[in-house]
Design brief:
This protein is α+β, with helices and mostly antiparallel strands. It has a domain of about 60 residues: lambda repressor-like DNA-binding domains (434 Repressor (Amino-terminal Domain), Orthogonal Bundle), CATH 1.10.260. About 25% of the residues lie in helices and about 10% in strands. The protein contains 5 helices and 4 strands; from the N terminus they run αααααββββ. The N and C termini lie far apart (about 70 Å).
Amino acid sequence: MSEKDRIEKVMQIEGMNSAVFASAIGIQGSTLSHILNGRNNPSLSVLQSILNRFPHISPEWLIMGQGTIERIVKQPQMPSLFDPIDESPSKSSISEPIKTEKNTTSISSNQQKIQPTTEIPVQETSFQPEQPVQVQQIEVPGKIVKKIIVYYSDNTFQELQ
């Protein structure tokens, strides 16, 4: 089945004649007429216009003739806190990558310890809270606190070791 035949099939399913279909996808009637008469092949922009106007049409079917005419819609799933992280190298990132290593002593295998690739200079400030700070000691067997980072409202921070 050619692209022309697939476009005719979409028109048939939608119950539109060529003039209404051309108007619906935002192209000239003569452009569609040339495609349907076999004079021209549909351009990428015509195929994109069809897919934008009829999102239930499968792009694979319309462009390559593969699969079914109806697009299979997957329900989007909101990621949860405990979903595994895809660490495959095929994912590209605009910013500098963050090195990660698995924390084998953690309760859940999905928890990770993240270490930045570059060090950020710390602005030394004297810690003088407006209100007294209550310190609560929490004991976790086999774990020792190595670093505490305090973030201030003026976007500065202090590392306590």
